[in-house]
Specification:
The complex is a heterodimer of chains A (about 625) and B (about 290).
Chain A lengths: L1 H14 L1 H5 L3 H29 L3 E3 L4 H25 L3 H19 L10 E3 L1 H31 L7 H20 L3 H19 L5 H32 L4 H10 L3 H14 L7 H5 L5 H10 L2 H11 L7 H22 L4 H22 L2 H32 L10 H4 L1 H15 L4 H15 L3 H25 L13 H37 L8 H26 L4 E2 L14 E3 L5 E3 L8 H4 L1 H27 L1
Antiparallel strand pairs in A: 1-2, 4-5
Chain B lengths: L1 H36 L9 H10 L4 E2 L3 H21 L4 H20 L4 H32 L4 H4 L6 H4 L1 H14 L28 H23 L8 H22 L5 H28 L1
Helix pairs in contact in B: 1-3, 1-9, 1-10, 2-9, 3-4, 3-9, 4-5, 5-8, 5-11, 8-11, 9-10
Classes of the chains: A mainly alpha (about 625), B mainly alpha (about 290).
Chain lengths: ~625, ~290
Amino acid sequence: MENLVAVLICLPFLLALLPLAVSNEKARGCVIYAGGAVILLLSVITAVLWFQDGTTLIFDLPASEIFDKIILAGDFILMFVIIWLSVKHHKTVISFLSVIQTGLVVWVELFGPKVEHTAHIRLDWLSFIMILIIGVIGVAIGIYAVGYMHGYHKHHKDIRDRRRFFFAMVFLFYGAMFGLVTSMNIIWLYFFWEITSVCSFLLIGYTGTKEAVDNSFRALWMNLLGGLAIAVAIVYAIYAEGTVNLYDIIENGKNAGLLIPIAMLAFACLTKSAQFPFSGWLLGAMVAPTPSSALLHSATMVKAGVYLLVRLSVALNGNSVGQMVYIIGGFTFFAASLLAISQSDGKKVLAYSTISNLGLIVACAGVGYEETSWAAIFLIIFHAVSKSMLFQCVGAIENATGSRDIEDMQGLAVRYPKLAFVLMVGIAGMFLAPFGMLISKWAALRAFVNAPSTLMVLFIVFGSSTTMFYWTKWFAKILGLHESRGEDVTQPSEYISMYFHAVFLILLCVGFPIVSKHVIEPMMLDMYGVSSPVLSEGNIAIMVIMVCAIFVVPTINYLLTRKVKDQPVIVYMGGANAGDNKNFVDSEGEAKELQISNWYMGEWFGEDKIFRPSVAFGTLMLVIFLCVIIGGAI
Amino acid sequence: MFGEYFNRFVMMFVFLVAAPFIGGLLDGIDRKLSARMQGRKGPGILQPFYDVAKLTQKQLLAVNKFQLLMVMSYLFFVMLSGALFFGGCDMLLCFFSLSTAAMFLILASTSTHSPFSTIGSHREMVQMMAYEPMELLTAVGFYLATGTFRVLDIVKADIPAILYAPGFFVGFVFILTIKFRKSPFDLSTTHHAHQEVVKGVTTEMVGIEYATTTVAEWYENVFLLGVVALFFINSNPLSYLVALVAVAVVFFLEILIDNTSARVKWQLMLKLAWGVTLITGGLNLLILELIQRR
């Protein structure tokens, strides 16, 4: 196992060199497919081997002293990369953040008090799930990216082709994420955390336009702030607790009330998972080509934040850190879903929905009950699959139609049936009863009623109604009428990835009782020492029936109505029809095209109305709670 | 154990069979009462049944045949929600299922690319956004009052939920006006002949499609009145009588409101619905939380 995990973490770093080295496009494609397949295989093998035993494994990697040295050197390399790039783009201020945190960590590591040696790697249920998500979903995105980037550079001749660099970053991301979810030593965790920050920064700036550069630096400083928080947590842990073991820190937070490192780690998670006031960076990340959005939103990056929060959740129950986390999460769930209403750009809606969904996960983890952690894991899984699929689909639609605006998706089901199918499954996976959201909302509501927290219950009920609104109107747009069929330019590799996701999502929906029983419940047993089924068998049965009904009922109805005789007519326009469904007779007696638009209600839910107040509220909450926590500790 | 399951299935069956008749009758009574309030004689109480029967025999003039299968799915999910409720299942799941049903109605309506039904369906979505928080809060109210989301256990409580959750009750009755498509909140479609967007969501529904929608509405109304009744029902058999009276009062109240108020804009509806939800539901929730804390 030691060797396997070492290979799992190191191989992606080595593979990252390959796309850099191969300049021929076809050959590079093959190299990426092969590399992706190897990583996928490795992650699945690791997961399966671990699953056979199913017990928590704690161990050192072979030659771990060398790794320690590499990580120390790596910290410096990351720092120099950041300094170089910030100076180059005249944003020198940002490099100070990096210097301070690297300085802190290196200083305490070299000159601080010696701490007892802790093992570096820990494999448990949560790592198991994360390894699968990164390995399976992450690699699928990589495969999709090969086809997508090919089309992307055909369309965007003005953007410099840096695909070699792009794929190198993607592979780096895999390696960093594998390291992050298996690290037990917090210094290791910090190192991998920083790699993801820097990688995402580089990916966001891919196109090199001014907007992209600005947005990438926004992402960088926000994530570096989180990195700084981890550095503080490391210093505190070494000086006050004499340990660098993440699980000791959690244990101390839970039992001895040493909340400062917990608060710092939780703060870092909030930045990484783009909660208010740090939501700006994820919205800015949209400027990057779609596969990097898919990667950041689903399998990596933001998932690193919620992963660590779920880890911390046992230490968050019933204290002020937990309160800080769940209030910010609940608020973000609601505010981001309001903001999504006013957006017509498909990718932006997806970005807000990611933020909103992460808010719910953060809230679930923050309250720290067994049943909410259970819900949080399910949300992480469902969200990873649906969101990756949705981004890929919107990317493919943009390549095919030249637009990712929802208004231009009128009648997509007629124009691009295959893409529309994927889009619909993805949207259904995000919000429709009985899929992912529902079970989580169910558990979260019950937990917050028990907590008790009126504010959170209100956030969830209002947030779920606004979530319904923005998804439904998108969904309705796809199914509208349209005359013509469009030419589909989507590459086979893109379809392979999207269909794979769709099938995977449907299987997950139907099979969630099995996943719950054999994966999540044992995990709860590990984390909380007890495990009771969160959903009663009756409720599980109802949900499975509902999942099936959603697919089966329309199909049966389709078969039933297929033979029904009907007389085609044109729509009612108060007598102003111009002979078809698309035109009407205007006041001058001429045919004019009928435009039908969704509601966006900008003067109510527009970004200019809600975004700043939300950031202000988030900041206020953070400041108040951090004061309370730090004040309480001193 | 077996007996309990049997009873639940019987209840589901009774609902599925009887609800359209009760719903249709209520519709007839509604029309009669409305007519009397407006100084008209009004149609016979059985008129809604004749209407539906006639609708089913009409030729299907379809803009998009897709609409029919969506409308049928709508009916199915409304029936499922009600059946789950009367079968004693989890209330939150009933409401989630009802939201799914509503989504099928919207898909049915927008699939036609018709200007009037599109406006209607967007208003319908705003209506959903307006009433859904209170709907979910109602389930929370029952949970706080009785410690469970399961209808089967709620009816066995010793004290009726209304005593703990009067605020939730008021809020629920308020959003019931939206759900029943009654003035002042009949934005998406109305039962009266004065809708500025023709027939809103149902503009393009013809013959069997409109009949299906009407029957689905009957099912939904019976389910929602069932929720009203649930506020009063407890282990005491007499409470069922009280519940019946309460349902009658609420039903009459809705008709009265319908006939005495003018349609509002969606902005005001959203403000009112969310405001009332916050004040009634939110306050009630807060008070219960404080009591629980102590």
